[in-house]
Design a protein that fits this description.
Length: 197
């Protein structure tokens, strides 16, 4: 388990499940994508991760829980965050810390989903003669009117790549963001090819 880290007046501590369940969530994060409140099982899964943090201010208030959930060990992870309603002036420092953790991650693929504007009314205008939606144009539309959730991943170094339509329990639009390292930066030593054959 990682040690606690100090960053200005903030303390970044290894996540404990109780923090994930107790945080005073922003309204948009009070239920999970599956439409239910967070569970103890989910909190314990996050607690086990190498990159899972609880963030406290100098007064001991819990401001955020965040990290990287490894989906495929050593290969792929999902960047996640739960921000408190009272995060206020600490948002920038927390964002910088998260960006730093993402930058040093050796996982080949990191991704995040962020709730987007309603794109369904726009899809009718972006369909070609064969009934296919112009997904690149749909992504440009979603990012031209970014929700607060869609503004944060680019601040962390993730780039928008696709709109996921009618997703989750409420059938909303989400934007998929990613950071993909070159293969040579992530391949284990036994898999690398020597220049000398």
């Amino acid at each position: 388990m990682a040690d606690a880290l100090e960053y200005g007046s903030l303390s970044f501590r290894p996540l404990v499940a109780e923090d994930f369940l107790a945080i005073d969530r922003q309204p948009s994060q009070r239920v999970c994508m599956h439409g239910e409140p967070p569970t103890l099982a989910a909190a314990l899964q996050l607690e086990e991760q190498a990159e899972s943090w609880s963030v406290f201010d100098g007064a001991g208030r819990l401001l955020a829980c965040m990290g990287i959930l490894e989906v495929f060990k050593g290969r792929c992870g999902v960047v996640w965050a739960v921000l408190a309603e009272h995060i206020g002036m600490h948002h920038l420092a927390i964002s910088r810390f998260a960006r730093g953790r993402i930058q040093i991650s050796r996982l080949g693929r990191l991704e995040a989903l962020a709730r987007a504007v309603d794109v369904e009314p726009m899809t009718a205008l972006l369909v070609d003669a064969w009934g296919r939606v112009d997904h690149a144009a749909l992504l440009r539309y979603a990012m031209a009117k970014p929700t607060p959730e869609c503004r944060w991943p680019p601040m962390l170094g993730l780039r928008p790549v696709h709109v996921v339509r009618r997703f989750g329990a409420t059938g909303e639009a989400y934007v998929l963001f990613e950071r993909v390292l070159p293969v040579c930066a992530t391949a284990p030593a036994e898999m690398t090819v020597s220049a000398h054959g």
